[in-house]
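Subject: design request, 370 residues
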């Protein structure tokens, strides 16, 4: 009698667990489908929803396709689109269809067997934000769409083998640096300098060493640029902002505290920019709120990978170092926080990869060079 009662209890527990599992699966599927439908809606109606300033890149590329002469980076982007049959008069509907297809493939690849990731509130919020900014920035012909399609999409969506993923990512990043954004070479160099710099088991020492390496590299960049061009690299950002200061698109602008007349003032301006990019000291625009929400969600999702980095553990992924180097280089060039956000959103699959690889399922990629 007691054995029968125990057996019935076990069957009841198993049955309840199956119901709970199915219930959780249905919630995950519902959230997954809702996010896809919501983002697709934003993609196809983006030009009616988002302000005109979100499409400045698109307007420039269409102008180049129509014969306008621009710098080589924009020209090369336009050549890629022209190669695939896009013209100055291509319908925005075609752009939306392409973006929708890329978004669907991305979501299916990342979440087909991992939809449970979405149930956590922070993950759902992060993914919802990415869907919104994807529709705003990556659903049109633009530099950032090319960056996503050339660098991130092949390595993190199409390729599953870890070693092939790394070499694909590195090769595609080098190609993108050569033809579209030269400063990506700086990011790649900084990534590998962090990778090979000696580490200890002391968190304090590792923080000091990482900071020392990054500051030293920034000084080298500042000095070499001034020697080669006779001006400060920070003047690029200031010249862009000087044109925008009296327009309605300057709410989240990052302005220098001092004129970049010497290395000391340059470092002071970099430090000030880093504070602006890290702490919400001034909130006057939606783009600023979105940027800080995005940044802090990233830090929260990647707290374990960052802990590995500071602890000097060898399983720290090289993709985290690339992301860290990328954000640091943004301090030199980004004119406003909206641009910071726009340029970071292409790394969503990388962030998802890092957060999943540190959730206990698999270890992050360890690249060894002999």
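Subject: RE: design request

Done. Sequence follows.
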């Amino acid at each position: 009698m007691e054995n029968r009662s125990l057996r019935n209890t076990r069957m009841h527990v198993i049955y309840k667990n199956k119901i709970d599992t199915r219930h959780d699966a249905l919630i995950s599927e519902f959230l997954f489908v809702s996010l896809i439908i919501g983002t697709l809606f934003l993609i196809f109606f983006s030009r009616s929803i988002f302000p005109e300033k979100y499409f400045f890149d698109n307007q420039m590329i269409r102008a180049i396709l129509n014969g306008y002469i621009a710098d080589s980076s924009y020209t090369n982007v336009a050549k890629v689109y022209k190669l695939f049959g896009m013209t100055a008069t291509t319908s925005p509907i075609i752009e939306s269809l392409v973006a929708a297809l890329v978004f669907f493939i991305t979501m299916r690849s990342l979440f087909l067997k991992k939809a449970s990731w979405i149930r956590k509130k922070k993950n759902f919020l992060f993914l919802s934000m990415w869907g919104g900014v994807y529709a705003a920035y990556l659903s049109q012909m633009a530099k950032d769409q090319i960056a996503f399609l050339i660098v991130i999409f092949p390595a993190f969506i199409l390729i599953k083998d870890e070693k092939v993923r790394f070499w694909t990512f590195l090769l595609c990043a080098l190609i993108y640096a050569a033809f579209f954004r030269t400063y990506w070479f700086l990011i790649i160099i900084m990534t590998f300098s962090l990778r090979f710099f000696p580490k200890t088991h002391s968190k304090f020492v590792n923080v000091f060493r990482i900071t020392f390496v990054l500051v030293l590299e920034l000084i080298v960049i500042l000095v070499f640029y001034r020697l080669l061009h006779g001006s400060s690299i920070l003047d690029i950002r200031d010249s862009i902002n000087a044109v925008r200061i009296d327009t309605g698109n300057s709410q989240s602008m990052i302005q220098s505290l001092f004129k970049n007349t010497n290395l000391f003032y340059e470092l002071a301006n970099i430090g000030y920019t880093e504070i602006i990019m890290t702490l919400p000291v001034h909130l006057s625009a939606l783009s600023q709120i979105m940027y800080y929400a995005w940044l802090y969600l990233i830090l929260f999702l990647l707290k374990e990978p960052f802990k590995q980095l500071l602890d000097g553990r060898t399983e720290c992924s090289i993709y985290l170092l690339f992301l860290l180097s990328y954000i640091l280089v943004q301090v030199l060039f980004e004119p406003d926080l909206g641009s910071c956000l726009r340029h970071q959103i292409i790394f969503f699959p990388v962030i998802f990869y890092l957060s999943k690889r540190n959730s206990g399922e698999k270890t992050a990629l360890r690249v060894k060079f002999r």
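Residues 360-370 have pLDDT under 50 and may be disordered.
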